[in-house]
Specification:
490 residues; mainly alpha; Serine Threonine Protein Phosphatase 5, Tetratricopeptide repeat
Length: 490
């Protein structure tokens, strides 16, 4: 049940609204204004708030920011927290006065001390962001906790984000999940999306993809567009929910329209590939451009490929290079690799092997195993770097684990030769077999040769012949020479 003072203030607001609608101007001292002044003077803080709002908005009285601030101050002194917050807003915006963030914070603190969750939450945001006052995450946490305890769902969500980031306290995904759960239950849709991400990955809790999808949907329905993106990915991949490319496209479209740039990139891929939509390189290029403008490296890279090939846009190698560079800067390793390869071949630029090596190294460090495999060969050949066989072998190993089979073969050769590492025939056999199973024909030939000799494996001419046939089909001429003409592919 609302307190009687609330009923009184609501009624007076109603009268003020009617008067504002029925009079083009109003005397400075009308009966309603007098009544509010009188009751405010008698300690009715809610009426101080009503009168201040009337002066501030010019409802039934002449607009007067100075008087608004005066009566908000009186209301605040009478422990009406809303009056404190309205006065804080005036000081913050410089409404009828010079902006004064120190005074604004003072009145926000007064409201917070009255257990007003909104005041505590505002202080939490101000100290967390650090744009108007010096950033102080410990104070931010303190105020967000007070707001969250008083059921401000948004502050619960902000606490979750702070615990997940791990500053100023140690990172704690479980604690973050608890705050996101509380925020989501209170109607804070970003909290639902963030909780969904943790449930999806199993960080701080057990993996539960169907529940994650439910959380993403709740968050997306509340217009939190990063969750729309995550929900779209789930539908696109059929993870945690039935695969539905058409629905994924609709969700990517919604999120992209709200400048969730990752969704623009995914939507661009769908238009490029004709997935659940008509194939259109022109539309794909437009979407990649928007994604790139939003600092999504994949969008810059894909648009760079379009510029390099003339697909969807006019061919422009200089623009492609610029886009590859932007992609690399924004964390897309394929952009680093593509740019490095242009410097390797001197395409549209002066050939620069040092820069090539540096860019491919960057692509590898960003997790692109194709780049790591190439970098291994760069260290072997001393192309733009000092020769380093140990580094090369380590990179071959990384790439091999990611199923780049030429690197498995090269590492097998090192183990077989024993020139830079202790000779290990069994390890060589293992690597050649793995690469051959991955259809790398040189390894099939090497493994066939070992079976032919009985070196490291049982001598088996029939098995050797099978491997030579496979290698010959892969255009290894030495393998073909090992076969009778009738077994050689035509």
């Amino acid at each position: 049940m609302r307190p009687r003072s609330w009923t009184r203030i609501t009624a007076l607001h109603g009268v003020l609204a009617v008067l504002a609608l029925t009079a083009s101007s109003w005397p400075a001292e009308d009966s309603i204004e007098k009544e509010l002044k009188k009751s405010c003077g008698k300690g009715q803080g809610q009426d101080c708030l009503a009168l201040a709002s009337a002066y501030r908005e010019g409802r039934a009285v002449q607009k007067n920011a100075k008087k608004a601030a005066e009566y908000y101050k009186k209301g605040c002194e009478l422990r009406v927290s809303r009056a404190c917050l309205e006065l804080a807003a005036m000081f913050r915006a410089g409404e009828g006065m010079s902006p004064n963030i120190e005074r604004a914070v003072e009145y926000m603190k007064a409201a917070c001390d009255m257990q007003d969750a909104g005041g505590c939450g505002l202080l939490g945001e101000i100290y967390e962001i650090g744009a108007e006052v010096p950033m102080d995450l410990r104070q931010a946490v303190d105020y967000h906790q007070r707001a969250c305890q008083n059921a401000l769902a948004k502050s619960c969500g902000r606490l979750g984000a702070i615990y997940l980031k791990g500053a100023p306290m140690p990172r704690d995904a479980k604690k973050a999940a608890e705050f996101f759960e509380k925020g989501c239950s209170g109607g804070d849709f970003p909290s639902c999306g963030s909780l969904g991400s943790l449930v999806w990955s199993g960080e701080g809790m057990a993996v539960n993809r169907p529940r994650a999808v439910t959380l993403f949907k709740k968050s997306c329905d509340g217009e939190y567009h990063p969750a729309c993106h995550d929900l779209a990915l789930a539908h696109a991949r059929g993870e945690g929910v039935s695969k539905n490319a058409s629905l994924a496209r609709e969700l990517f479209t919604k999120a992209c329209g709200a400048n969730e740039y990752r969704s623009c990139y995914q939507l661009g891929l769908m238009h490029r590939d004709g997935a659940a939509t008509a194939q259109s390189f022109t539309d794909a290029a437009t979407l990649f451009a928007k994604a790139c403008q939003g600092n999504v490296g994949g969008g810059c890279y894909e648009l760079g490929v379009f510029n390099a090939t003339g697909r969807g846009v006019k061919r422009n190698l200089a623009q492609a290079m610029s886009l590859y560079r932007d992609g690399c800067t924004h964390g897309e390793p394929r952009g680093c690799l593509a740019l490095g390869l242009l410097y390797e071949g001197g395409q549209g630029v002066v050939k620069d092997l040092r820069l090539m090596a540096s860019l491919i190294d960057e692509a590898c460090s960003k997790g692109l195993m194709d780049a790591c495999g190439r970098l291994a060969k760069i260290y072997e050949a001393a192309s733009g770097v000092n020769r380093d066989i140990n580094k090369a072998m380590s990179l071959h190993g990384q790439a091999c684990e990611a199923s780049f089979f030429s690197n498995c073969h090269d590492l097998g050769v090192y183990h077989y030769d024993g020139r830079y590492i202790s000779r290990d025939i069994q390890k060589a056999v293992e690597l050649f077999r793995r690469a051959c199973d991955g259809d790398f024909p040189a390894s099939c030939f090497a493994l066939g040769t070992l079976h032919e000799k009985g070196e490291g494996v049982a001598r088996d001419r029939a098995r050797a012949q099978e491997l030579f046939i496979k290698a010959c089909e892969g255009k290894i001429s030495a393998a073909c020479a090992k076969l009778p003409r009738r077994l050689q592919p035509r």
